Amino acid sequence: MRHLDRTLAGACLVAAVLLLAVALGLVLVDQQVSNSASCYLIAGVALLICYGLLAPRAVIDAARSRRARFGSLSVVVSALVIGILVTANVIASRGLQSEDFTRGQLYSLSPKSRAVLQRLDSDLQVTGFFRPNSDPADLRADIALLAEYQKASPRVRVSFVDPDTHPDLARRLGVKINGGLALQYRTKPPIVLNLGSQTEADITGSILKLQSSRTPLICWAAGEGERDLKEVQLFGYSDTASQLANDNFKTRETVLAQAAGIPADCDVLAIVGLQRPLAAATIKAIQAYVDGGGRLVLAVDPWLDRPVLDSANLLLQPYQAKFDGGLVLDTDPAHTASNDNTTPLVFQYGASPITADLANRYTFFPQPTSISGQGATGVLVTKIAETSQASYQIADVRDNAQFERRPGDPGGPFTLMATVEKEAGDKKARMVLVGTSAFAENRTLPPNAPGFNLQLMLGSFDWLAGNDELIKLPAKPQTATPLLLSTFDLLVISLITVVLVPLLVAGVGVVVWLRRRRSFAAA
Fold first, then answer.
1. CA dist 371 to 225, 305, 368, Å?
2. CB of 240 closer than 8 Å to CB of 440
3. pTM of the entire structure?
4. pLDDT digit string (tens) for 27-64?
5. CA 229 – CA 227 distance, rounded (Å)
C-alpha cells in the first residue's frame, strides 16, 4: 500500500509540474489568464496538494534535510532567474524597438522608402481604423511597420481609432471596412489602404503618389506581339504593371502602327519584345520623340526575323548603337543561372544611377542578344551589364543540342544592357537598351525568382522619368536569402551540435556532482 502511495505521489508531482508549465505558457502567449490557463492552473495546484497528502513524510523530510535546503535554495534561485528572463522577454515582445540582423534587411525599411520619406516637407498623417475585436496580429503588424516609418522620419504621424466611435472621420477619409489605413498629406485627397494591401511597397507607393504633382505616364507598345502588361502567366508582364503602379507610374497601351506620332503626354515610351518590323513612319516618329527630349525603353530578343531586327537598328542608327541579333551564352558557372548557359547572370555593373545600389547583387538576362556601338558625336553610350569573358554568341538559329561553341562564334564579354543619353536643347534624351524582353517578365521577378531584376526594372523607369534621387532598392519581398553550406560546413556544424555541446554539458554536470559530493562528505 505504501509503495502504491509513493507511486501515485510521484505521478501527481510530475503531472502538477507539467500542468503548471502549460498554464504559464498559455498566460505568456495569450497575455492574459484565459479560461484554459485557469483550468490548467487549478488542476496543477490540486495535484500538488494531492502529492502533499499522499507523501507528507517526503515533504517534511525534504524541508528538514540539509540537502533539501540546499536544493530548495537552488530551486528558488533558478526560479528567480527564469522569472527575470521570462519577464524581460514578455516586456521585449510587447515593445516595438528592434534591430534587423538579416543579411537582406528583410525587417527594416528599404533605401527607397527612406529616400521617399526624406522628401517629406509636411506632416504625413496615417490613421488606422481598427475595432477592439480586430485580429491582434493584423493590428500589431501595422503598428510595427508604421513604427519603422516613424523612426525614419519625424514627419510621419500615426494614430489608431475605432471606426464605430469615429464614424464621421472614417466617412470623410473614405474608410469603409475595419482595418483600413488612411494616408493624408497636405491638401491631397487621402489614400486608403485596406487589409491585404498594407505592405511596405503599398505604403511607400502611396506616399510617392501623395508627394508627386503628377504621375509619369508610360506608353507601352502593344497589339503587335510585344510583351503584354495584362498577361498573368510566367511569360507575361502583369507583375511589372503592378510594381510600376506601386512606384507611382501610370501605364497606357499604345499601338505604334496606328499612331500618327508619339503622344505628347508620354513621359516614357516602352517597346518590349518587338515582333514585327517598325514602319518607316513609326521609326521617324520615335526618333523625333527622342530627339525632342523623349525617353525610350527598347528590349529586343535574339534570332529575330531579319526585317524586325533591321527596323530596330534603323531606329538606333542616328545614335550609333545596335543590337547584334545572335544568342549570347555564358559558360562561366559563376555567371549563369542554375547552370543554364542561355541565362547569363550579372553582378557587376557599369557606372550608372540605375545600378548604383546593385553592386554584388545578381540579375538574370534570359536568352539575350548583345548590344554594340560607341555612340555618335554628342551621344553617350554607357554599358550597364556585361557577360564574362567565357561567353560567346551564336549568330544563326541552331537546335538546343548544337549550342556548343564553334570556331566561328565570337567570344565575349558582351553588353546585355546599355543606356544612351543625348542633349536635346534644355532637355536630355534618354534610352535604355536591353538585349532580352524577358528581363522583367513574371518568371524573373519575385516571388517566382530570386535576384534583383525588379530593382533593375524600376530603376530603369525611374531614371528615364527623371526621378534619379528615387533610384534606390525598392521595398523588399519577404523572402530570406538562402544560406549555402558546403559539406565541410555541415560536418563542422554536426560535430559542434551533436558531439561537442552534449559533451560540454555532461562535463559540467560531472564537475558539479563531484564538488557537491565532496562538500557533503566533508560535512
1. 22, 17, 10
2. yes
3. 0.65
4. 766 656 667 777 877 887 887 788 777 777 766 666 56
5. 7
